[in-house]
Structures are given as C-alpha cells and as structure tokens.
Amino acid sequence: MKTLKSIGLFFKRLAFGTGGFIKKLWQHKQGRVGLIIVTFLAILAIFAPLIAPYDPYDVTQRAEKGLTPSWEHLLGTSITTGQDIFSMLIYGTRSSLSIGLITGVVIAVLGSLLGIAAGYLGGWVDTLIMRVVDVLLVIPTLPLVIVMTNVLGTSYAVIVLVFAAFGWTGLARVIRAQVMLIKNANYVKAAELSGASKWYIMWRHILPAVSNLLIMSTALTSAGIMVAEAGLSFLGLGNPTAISWGKMLADAQSGGAMLFGHWWSILAPGVGIFLSVYSFMRIGLALEEILNPRMRKGSSMIKVFKHLNNTYLDEVFSSMDEESKLKGEYAGGATVALNTDTQQTTGVPELVPAEAVAESAPAVTPAAGAAVPAEKPAKKRKNNKDAGEKR
Predict the structure, then answer these.
(1) Over 50: is that where the pLDDT of 354 sits?
(2) Which is nearest to 38 in space by CA: 279, 255, 256?
C-alpha cells in the first residue's frame, strides 16, 4: 500500500505540482491546443455509448448501405455494412486512443527501466542492454510486425506487445545518455556517500530527473503508434472484430467509396486520425520546447528554415554574385566565376571554368611607356619604446 501511495503521489506532483507538466502545457500555446483536443477525444472515447446515436456493434441498428449524410445519419452509412459512420467514428476513438496510449506507456516503462539501468549501473549490464538495442534497431519493425500478427493473431494485446517489444530501443538510448550526465550530479554523489542503495537512488533521484523526458517521449510515441495501427487495420491486419479508424478506411476503400463519390466515408476517419496524431504531436513538441531552452525563442523549425532561406542564403548568393562576376574567385589556384544565366533559371549559381572566363574577359594591357608600379614591401611596426632605445 505504501508503494502504491508513493507512486500516486509521484504522478500527482508530476502532473499538478508547482512544476507539473500539465500546468506547463496549459501555459504553452501549442500545448494548450493539444490538451484541449486530447481531452475532447478522451471524453468521446469514455462516453461513446452515451454520445453515439447508434450502436455500430448491434446488427439490428444497421440501415441501408451507402446512405448520404442526413439528419438521421449525420455522416451517412457505411458503403459495405450499412453502419452509421458517425457512431463508428465515435467508437473508433476508443480503439485508436487505447492502443496509442497503452503502447506508449509500455514503451516508456521498458525504455526508462532499461535506459536507467544501463546508464547508472554500467559495466556488463550496460554492454548487454546496448548490444540488444543495436540488434533490434537493425531489424525493420513494420515487416516484422506484419509477420508476427499473422502468426500470433490480430488481437489488440498482440499488437501492443509487438509494437512495445521493438519500440523501446530509441528511448532507452536517450535515457541512458541523460542518466550518464545525471549520475555525476552532486546530489546523486551525496546520496551514494550517505549509504543509499542503487535501486533507491534510481527510483528517488534519477527517475524524477528524466520524468519530463519520458512524458514527452510517450506523447510522440503514441502519435506514431496510432498511425501504425491505422496502417495495419487498413491493410487488413488489425482486429477484425473491433471498430477502428483504419478499418473504416479499409472498408471504404474496398467498397469503392471514391468510385461512387462517397467521400465522407474516407474524410471522417481521416480527420479523426489527423486530430489525434496532431494533438499528441503538439503536446510532445510543446514539452520539448519547455525542456529545451534553446527552442523557446524559436517555436518551430519551419521558422528556422525560413530564416535561413530568406536571409542567410540570400546574402551569401548576392555577395558571391557581385564579387565573383567582376573579379572571380581563387580556389585551389583556379579562377572561377558565376554563370548568371544558370542562376536565373535554376536559382543556384553555377561555376564557370577558368578557360571560359579568360576567353570572355577582355585582355587588359598596360599603356605604352607606362611604368608598372612595383609591389611595396610590408612595413614592420615598431614600438615607440624600441625607437627611443635606438636613438
């Protein structure tokens, strides 16, 4: 009981404490958007039987196949089964969110435990875990998942275990690198000198230090798992007895929804997948900006690339264009210049060989009788003190 209470207090402080990630996310603009969307999707998943007008699992509540949207069926009916698409969309939230969150949590637990053990204990433990990580990183995950689901079955438990078995490796490497820095901190050394056990130090000192990184990784991993699960269901490798957004796309594709103009059969699950993945990505990227001070001023990588494209590259190319067209540049003993015709068509300056520059440039010869100025030797600077001593 004490262990459960301590775990509950740990997560309560982590979420709602003074530096809790929920408070930090709510203060962050993009994180607030992600939290609102995730909360909305969670409400749909929890209260799906109360919100959905029909039960898509009930065969008696099915209507005619391929009905267009109306007040009776807001998003029409399925072109293959006659189920209400709006009800399927709400019930599909359960499958996508549950698989994404559960798999993300399992990956976070495995990656954190093995990463902390490898980084803090070191020695043969570190070597063994990292060699396993190297082997698993080489194996292509998606083809292996397809093979294992065909062998073991397509239940949600199998899908979660297969994704978790091969998804913890990247997080373990990141956690290990972070722990190798944390274990040299003064408070960790003080705990070691006081006689605290290694397991106590890993639980009470190292795990809280990497908790925010775990939450960020869980959010980003959950988004990737949702897309992967939708892809498996679209390929027919998902759970055939459950309703998911990927299965809705597969049914619409097999029934010829686009051929008959039933675009709403594809748009509805596509929007659901987009919103779920977008919300978790916003949460993960917001936490990354909060944890990484270098990213707080530049909130998006797009801004960085735009800045580079609009300022730095323009300045470089303009300076090269102005200087190299007139006098050329000396690189490795060869004279080169910029071809302005190529730059106008492709946007990238092209180097012209030295022979072409010599042929096109007019020959400059000194006038008759004009003296060629000799190069003056460089003057040496003398200090006033040395000059005074010579006098």
Answers:
(1) no
(2) 279
Chain segment 64-91, per-residue pLDDT in tens: 777 788 888 888 888 778 888 888 889 9
Rounded Cα distance between 362 and 78, Å, is 77
The string of DSSP codes covering 224-241 is HHHHHHHHHHHTT-S-TT
SS3 at position 163:
helix
pTM for the structure as a whole = 0.66
Task: Report which of 199, 184, 195, 187 is spatially closest to residue 116, judged by C-alpha positions.
Answer: 199
Task: List the structure tokens of 280.
Answer: 């978790």
Residue ranges of alpha helices (H) inside the chain are 2-16, 21-27, 29-46, 48-51, 85-121, 123-138, 141-152, 156-167, 169-182, 186-193, 198-201, 207-209, 211-234, 245-254, 264-291, 301-307, 313-327, 340-346, 354-360, 384-390
Q: Cβ(290)–Cβ(28) under 8 Å?
A: yes
Let me know the angle formed at the C-alpha of 187 by 181 and 193, rounded to the nearest 5 degrees: 105
* Tens-digit pLDDT profile for residues 5-50: 555 554 455 555 545 667 777 777 777 888 899 889 899 889 988 8
* AA letter at 136: L
Distance CA 202, CA 208 (A): 9
Residues belonging to the chain: 391
Average pLDDT over residues 345-351: 43
Q: Going by DSSP bridges, is the β-strand pair 334-339/350-352 parallel, antiparallel, or unpaired?
A: antiparallel
Q: Return phi, psi of residue 331, to 5°.
A: -130, 110
Helix 85-121 and helix 264-291, axial crossing angle in degrees, nearest 10: 30
Backbone angles phi, psi at 335, to 5 degrees: -85, 130
The one-letter amino acid at 71: W
Domains and CATH numbers, the chain: 9-298 (1.10.3720.10), 302-360 (no CATH)
